[in-house]
Amino acid sequence: MQLGMIGLGRMGGNIVRRLLREGHEAVAFDQNADAVAALEGEGATGANSLEDLVAKLEAPRIAWVMLPAGEITQAAVQRLGELMQPGDVIIDGGNSFYKDDIARAAALAEKGIHYLDVGTSGGVWGLERGYCMMIGGDTETVQRLDPIFASLAPGIGDIPRTEGRETRDPRAEQGYIHAGPAGAGHFVKMIHNGIEYGMMQAFAEGFEILEQANSETLPEAQRYDFNLADIAEVWRRGSVVSSWLLDLTAQALAGDEKLDGFSGFVSDSGEGRWTINAAIEEAVPANVLSAALYARFRSRKEESFADKILSAMRKGFGGHQEPK
Question: Is 196 a catalytic residue?
């Protein structure tokens, strides 16, 4: 298939590369001309504007927006809605607020343009590992674009099927699902990221307890000489807390056990806040997820070793850099 990509940052560029490897065609646009030129050298067709991108796509067109959530994405979707024609598809693969998706889908439907919200997880490792995708939108359009999603997804791989049940959506075993109508994809991704906050915070606090057990301020009888990198490494093998987040933690500690390269200033992309707002609207107690979000706020005033662990994980999976 042919797809136009708007935004060639940490994930957009690699999504294009993965599609090219799978035999699809891509038209690529970014404000950074060097990023466009790099993908042209790998087989993509470059575009110098949204207008140019739409002109180079064959009808029915597919345009994927991979930009920061908020005004930038809204402006891009709105402009594409002015340029594209009935039957065309606009995808938002970023981290937009799900209620914005519902409004966009309704506005574009009046023009006969389809809109999909695709919560995309995989970070800077997606080119190699594939992307987990949670898709919202109408069934017919999702099915029509299935070759694109199947090429981007990790595939069945070596993960065994959950014992005792059949998956309602067989695509879930390949790493992507049609979650529901407009907004459903980003709603599921929002909760995914809220859970991610809690898991990261648990690792961060645990490793800080281990780190403090080495402190010379403790009585000698209570003091240890733990090697945190070794502990992370042994937990990766057969432990019930083994995970990709632990893999990234082990990698960070192996390179710098004190994590002196991190200040501990932990940003949040907004989805943790939206998750808590959804919990409040639904009257669902979310004690751990709320505490994890507030811990990030606190990190911006008083950093700790736990915060450095969080920063290291964020850099590991998403390439997130701490503010200067």
Answer: yes
